[in-house]
Amino acid sequence: MVTHDSNTQHISAQFDHELEEIKARMLEMGGMVEQQVSSAVHSLVEKDPDQAERVVSRDHDVNMLEVEIDDDCSRILARRQPTASDLRLVLAISKAISDLERIGDEAAKIARQSITLCEEGASPSGYVELRHIGNHVAGMVHDALDAFARLDVDMAIQVAKEDSQVDKEYGSAMRSLMTYMVEDPRVIGSVLKEMWALRALERVGDHACNIAEYVIYLVKGLDVRHLEISDLIAQLEEK
């Protein structure tokens, strides 16, 4: 005989499984876009158009995965009507996959610049700043996803701090590239393409920071979007 309590436990176990499944799929998508960013940067720095083409072609896979996970989130919201922490988890995943899809878009933009630069010739900068910032933001994406997987608020805060550093590195790199264009107008075309790639990387850092903020929302129930890092830490200490 199936009792009311055993039936409730069965439904609860099914729900927990569904939540773990969409979280696992979000992290799978995250791993995919993290690789997309690294491959796009590598294709540009190492002048590898074939790798760049693969990045562009895989962007469709990232887009389709976002649609599938978003459908799963909508279905859970409609059928299970989650509350409290379960609701925050579904909402955080729904928001995170949107940022992950945009990271994939930025990686594809970098790859397209890579293909063009491979045809036109290298930038005079040697892509030093681009390699450095590329490694930095790829690490941020990795750490943001790790923080989500572990529900690690401290790691999420560190990712938010890293975003400020990336912004500074981006500003410095842009000033350096401007110097090349002033000194030799013949390189303006290639340097502009590198600038567009750097801009895409800076946006990747922004999206990684967003995912870190969703971790804080998920664990603490605080919406810390648009806060300065000092204000964010102060709010968490009050909580």
Automatic annotation (TrEMBL):
Residue intervals of the PhoU domain: 27-112, 130-215
Keyword field: Cytoplasm, Phosphate transport, Transport
InterPro entries associated with the record: PhoU (IPR028366), PhoU-like_sf (IPR038078), PhoU_dom (IPR026022)
Domain of life: Bacteria
Location (main, coarse): cytoplasm
Subcellular location as annotated: Cytoplasm
SUPFAM superfamilies: PhoU-like (SSF109755)
Classification via Gene3D superfamilies: Phosphate transport system protein phou homolog 2, domain 2
Annotated Pfam families: PhoU
Similarity comment: family membership: Belongs to the PhoU family.
Function as written in the Swiss-Prot or TrEMBL entry: Plays a role in the regulation of phosphate uptake.
Record-linked NCBIfam families: phoU_full (TIGR02135)
PANTHER family reported in the protein's UniProt record: PHOSPHATE-SPECIFIC TRANSPORT SYSTEM ACCESSORY PROTEIN PHOU (PTHR42930)
Known partners and oligomeric status: Homodimer.
Descriptive protein name: Phosphate-specific transport system accessory protein PhoU
Organism per entry: Candidatus Litorirhabdus singularis
